[in-house]
């Protein structure tokens, strides 16, 4: 199945940089959009600078699309007022524009932070109640509920990928939470080419021995992750300090986001390396 037009929001971000090329091969026209430029374009790709918080921008970008891969957002905890436009209003704008233009499906980059306050020793599935660790996580809860409502009231399909951590494995938490870029690409591809999805929430995580979530609900997509963070375990554990079991940042699914004060950066406590792909 090859789509005529596919839209990718957040195309200038780290994860967007790895999705652009493979998504361009799934459609005749890939429209990549962001408030920042993406650099050189792939064959069949066009770029439109647009603001998620501007409804007219989203209407223009999404017109004619069959599906939208919505990865755009502020990707860290911040004061609510800063997140409101891109992370909350932006999601509404994407779904409403998709509905008005007859888009078939939205694939959304949700996050473990929607349920980040659950203890990590609870092997949670996607049916547990929302338990956000930050305003950032709250925006993910909002968008998951938005997607369910648009499916039940308006018939717009959506798949919400609760990504755990798609970054280099350089800390003990990542031994369970890692989503490799190859597995991310596979997951998004399966979200696109699965014939029928309705509304679905699944976890974005690789085939890690220490994965702390039950991802059985992703099986219907045909998602079969191949990478395993255990390959890095010996080196990571040899360099790690003893963790405090009373620190929510160590004990909760949300990691450092679970321990920061609301509005303060969660990424500041993580060693995330900006290894975005250059086009």
From TrEMBL:
Pfam families: Epimerase
Listed Gene3D superfamilies: NAD(P)-binding Rossmann-like Domain (3.40.50.720)
Top-tier EC class: oxidoreductase
Keywords: NAD, Oxidoreductase
A GO term for molecular function: uronate dehydrogenase activity
Ranges of residues in domain NAD-dependent epimerase/dehydratase: 7-163
Record-linked InterPro entries: Epimerase_deHydtase, NAD(P)-bd_dom_sf
EC number(s) recorded for this UniProt protein: 1.1.1.203
Oxidoreductase as UniProt keyword: yes
Family from the record: Belongs to the NAD(P)-dependent epimerase/dehydratase family.
Protein name listed in UniProt: Uronate dehydrogenase
């Amino acid at each position: 199945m090859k789509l005529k037009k596919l839209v990718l929001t957040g195309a200038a971000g780290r994860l967007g940089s790895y999705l652009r090329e493979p998504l361009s091969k799934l459609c005749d026209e890939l429209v990549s959009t962001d408030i920042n430029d993406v650099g050189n374009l792939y064959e069949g790709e066009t770029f439109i600078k647009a603001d998620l918080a501007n409804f007219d921008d989203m209407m223009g970008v999404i017109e004619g699309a069959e599906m939208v891969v919505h990865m755009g957002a502020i990707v860290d905890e911040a004061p609510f007022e800063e997140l409101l436009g891109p992370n909350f209003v932006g999601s509404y704008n994407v779904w409403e524009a998709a509905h008005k233009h007859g888009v078939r499906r939205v694939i959304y980059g949700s996050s473990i932070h929607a349920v980040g306050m659950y203890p990590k020793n609870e092997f949670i599935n996607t049916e547990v109640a929302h338990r956000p660790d930050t305003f950032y996580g709250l925006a993910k809860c909002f968008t998951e509920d938005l997607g369910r409502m648009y499916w039940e009231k308006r018939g717009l399909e959506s798949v919400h990928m609760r990504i755990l951590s798609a970054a280099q494995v350089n800390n003990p938490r990542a031994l369970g939470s890692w989503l490799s870029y190859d597995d991310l690409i596979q997951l998004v591809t399966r979200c696109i080419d699965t014939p029928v999805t309705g509304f679905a929430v699944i976890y974005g995580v690789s085939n890690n021995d220490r994965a702390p979530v039950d991802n059985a609900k992703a099986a219907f997509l045909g998602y079969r992750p191949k990478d395993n963070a255990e390959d890095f375990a010996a080196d990571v554990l040899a360099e790690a300090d003893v963790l405090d079991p009373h620190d929510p940042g160590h004990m909760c699914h949300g990691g450092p986001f679970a321990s920061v004060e609301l509005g303060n950066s969660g990424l500041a406590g993580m060693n995330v390396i900006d290894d975005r792909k250059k086009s």
